[in-house]
Amino acid sequence: MDSDLLTQFWLLLAGVGGAFLPVAIGQGTSSRARALAQVTCGALMATFFAPALERHFFSTSPAQVNAGISFFVGCFGLKLTELSQKLIDSRGEALANRLIDRIAGADERKLP
What we know:
Layout: H1 3-25, H2 32-57, H3 63-104
Helix pairs in contact: 1-2, 1-3, 2-3
């Protein structure tokens, strides 16, 4: 078996395992459909986001370290995404206005 293919499978398996962990230890009552969606999204994050993270920050690390990163991305990636979304929802307009002011320059407002 090709070692690159085996490494990719190992990372996918680690991501799926990490995605299952929050569902397995979850305290709240959850439907099977929600659990399936959570595992699928966690595995997708581990499959697509973790390799980019690994390549950028851990390019010389062995496959075991990369699998650990995929596991943690699968496990905690959805929560971090959820927190980011809440931050954007609550403060998004103010952050966007600051960004626009920084790029385009703040309008000088003259008081009468």
